[in-house]
Amino acid sequence: MSNTWLLGEKTGNDRIFDAVADKDLAFKITIALKENEVMRVLSKIDHNGNVKTYRLDANGNIIAEWP
């Protein structure tokens, strides 16, 4: 979930617009990304159904457990 992946900088596939299908909302989210106003959270579920959540940085790297 890096900014480049979300915005499709390598592929041209803007995943934000694809997800929200609203040009104005996609623009607002893109601005929030660029101003670092978005919290990225990854959820992982193990084979027993236990869920762990992690915060990610702007490059999509796990930086801490969340919350």
Description:
It contains three helices and three strands, in the order H-H-H-E-E-E. A hairpin with a 5-residue loop joins strand 1 (40-45) and strand 2. It has a three-stranded antiparallel β-sheet with strand order 1-2-3, with no helix packed on it. The radius of gyration is 14 Å and the shape is elongated. The protein has helices at 3-7, 15-20, 23-34, and strands at residues 40-45, 51-56, 62-65. With 67 residues, it is of the alpha+beta class. The longest helix has 12 residues, at 23-34. Helices cover 34% and strands 24% of the residues.
Helical/strand content category: alpha+beta
Reported for the largest beta sheet, the result is: 3 strands, antiparallel
What is the H-and-E element order?
HHHEEE
The multimeric state of the shown protein is single chain
The whole-number mean of residue pLDDT values reads 93
Number of strands: 3
SSE diagram, text form:
Layout: H1 3-7, H2 15-20, H3 23-34, E1 40-45, E2 51-56, E3 62-65
Antiparallel strand pairs: 1-2, 2-3
